[in-house]
Design goal:
36% of the residues lie in helices and 19% in strands. The chain is built from 15 helices and 19 strands. Strands 12-13-14-11-10-16-17 form a 7-stranded mixed β-sheet, sandwiched between helices. It has 2 domains: 246 residues, 3-Layer(aba) Sandwich (Aldehyde Dehydrogenase, Chain A, domain 1), CATH 3.40.605; 199 residues, 3-Layer(aba) Sandwich (Aldehyde Dehydrogenase, Chain A, domain 2), CATH 3.40.309. It has 511 residues and is of the alpha/beta class.
């Protein structure tokens, strides 16, 4: 939808259910580079009028969107489950995240504060204001097809920007429903929020052309570190800084002071929720050598007992989201070396490679065994690189110094966790871990709408989403000085000085 109207695409495709591959969820028409440029032109035209609407009124639009999402929570969650195979309980939580984001930002329309700053000169006042950046291109992944887009789109709309959104190719039904709820629930004028379905090369070409034409003022991107580098480089060539939320190799340290059962529960959800297809999914468990065997036994037992299968049932994990992720996951499994200790079956779940207690029909979808690999070390691909899928590495450490070094070694910096009941360990870890987010006695996954979300290193460029911090991504600071003296006053040159005695010293003896 561009400027409130559907656009013709250059090719058509089906979106299928990854847990029932013969079920078509939606038919989608993919555009090309010119489609994205046309959307950018529409958004660029609409932006001045949208920015002219008072911010508190834009806040009421965000409130309307939140209530519309709330009314359609179950319906939207069902689409997410059907299209990407996310368990329904998780999908409900994802939709709730949109509601929470709207609830937070509806009030920010009345709190886009600037400052009144004292001047160094008489009869002069200084002010600062937040101004919208302009037109924002948002490119998001499909593992959180509705929650993550809201992190960009809600604050961008609130602050007076217009949007061109390119969602993931494999979640068009969820993104179309999201777009319709936002436009109708918020009463958004045509051109304010446009959606374009396109593949990666077409998107990059359209983005480049739009930047060359001065139609795009900000890029928000969620996806892999490799693509993030390309998007960041493109933005940099146009003197822009993209908002990049990229991959992770999120460590979880378990100390001798940890509650091991709680740590197992956290590792199970962090490693295998959404079938390990989150940017915040657990990468490596770094467990103290004194409790390594005990933890591993408990972890393996919990994983073996966890229900896996049909995402409409109560399961730990469903299928891989799309065939391309299944293929990549099989490549990650090929990284397992002879020195590694694989704790369970590997590969696709089939009649010849079954999983006990599987829920549903494994032959119907892209279902894979969750895998725990013990004995990984720096230098191993499984330790060093993001493995997007249900694969968790385990290694051991001697002291906290070594644990923190291991946690930082891969060079990502998104999320992290430590399980301990020792406050000194918790604060030492938080102080020295490179991640933008850390949890104590909780999972590596999970975000709240009023906390900053984002990473460093391979995980991002330091930009943050959510909370008040994201406002700096979608607004520019403007300073204003107002001189009402009736004469030209030159800063740093015409400043009045007080008469001071430079030779004065206090004579203590005379007192």
């Amino acid at each position: 939808m561009v400027d409130g109207k559907p656009v013709d695409g250059v090719r058509a495709a089906d979106s299928t259910n990854p847990s029932r591959l013969d079920e078509v969820i939606a038919k989608v028409s993919f555009g090309d580079a010119s489609t994205l440029v046309g959307a950018a032109e529409s958004a660029h035209r609409a932006q001045p009028a949208w920015a002219a609407i008072p911010a508190p009124v834009r806040g009421r639009a965000i409130a309307g969107i939140g209530r519309a999402v709330e009314r359609n929570k179950q319906a939207l969650a069902k689409i997410v489950t059907a299209e990407i195979g996310k368990p329904y309980a998780e999908a409900l939580g994802e939709v709730q995240e949109i509601i929470d984001t709207c609830d937070f930002f509806l009030g920010e329309g009345r709190r886009l504060y600037g400052q009144t700053v004292p001047s160094e000169m008489a009869d002069k006042q200084l002010f600062t204001f937040r101004r919208p950046v302009g037109t924002v291109a948002v490119i998001t992944a499909g593992n959180f097809p509705v929650a993550v887009p809201s992190w960009y789109i809600v604050p961008a709309l609130l602050t007076g920007n217009t949007i061109v959104w390119k969602p993931a190719e494999y979640s068009p039904a969820a993104s179309a429903a999201f777009h319709e709820i936002f436009v109708r629930g918020g009463g958004l004028p045509d051109g304010v929020f446009n959606i374009v379905h396109a593949d990666g090369p077409s998107t990059f070409a359209g983005l480049e052309q739009s930047l060359d034409a001065g139609l795009i003022d900000k890029i928000g991107f969620t996806g892999s570190s490799a693509v993030g580098r390309e998007v960041g480089g493109l933005a940099g060539r146009h003197l822009q800084t993209a908002c990049l939320e990229l991959g992770g190799k999120n460590p979880m340290v378990i100390t001798p002071a940890a509650d091991l059962d709680l740590a197992v529960e956290g590792a199970l959800f962090a490693g295998f929720g959404t079938a390990g297809q989150r940017c915040t999914s657990l990468g490596t468990v770094i467990v103290h050598e004194s409790v390594h065997d005990d933890f591993l036994d408990r972890f393996n037992a919990a994983l073996a007992a966890a229900p896996i299968g049909d995402p409409t049932a109560e399961v730990l994990m469903g299928p891989m989201m799309d065939a391309k992720f299944a293929e990549r996951y099989e490549e990650f499994l090929s990284w397992i070396q002879p020195q590694h200790k694989v704790q369970a079956a590997c590969g696709r779940i089939t009649a010849d490679n079954p999983r006990d207690g599987f829920v549903g029909d494994p032959a119907a979808g892209l279902f894979y065994h969750p895998v725990v690999v013990d004995g990984v070390q720096p230098g191993d691909a499984i330790f060093d690189q993001e493995t997007f899928g249900p694969l968790v590495g385990v290694t051991s450490y001697r002291d906290l110094e070594q644990a923190i070094e291991l946690a930082n070694t891969p060079g990502y910096g998104l999320s992290s966790a430590i399980y301990t009941n020792d406050a000194r360990e918790a604060f030492s870890f938080a102080n020295r871990i490179s991640a933008g987010m850390t949890s104590v006695n909780n999972s590596t996954s999970g975000a709240e709408a009023h906390l900053p979300f984002g990473g460093n290193g391979k995980s991002g460029n330091g930009s943050r989403q959510s909370g008040i911090w994201v406002l700096d991504q979608f607004t520019r600071w403007q300073s204003m000085n107002w001189d009402y003296s009736g004469r030209l006053q030159k800063a740093q040159m015409d400043v009045a000085e007080l008469a001071v005695d430079p030779d004065f010293t206090l004579d203590v003896d005379e007192r």
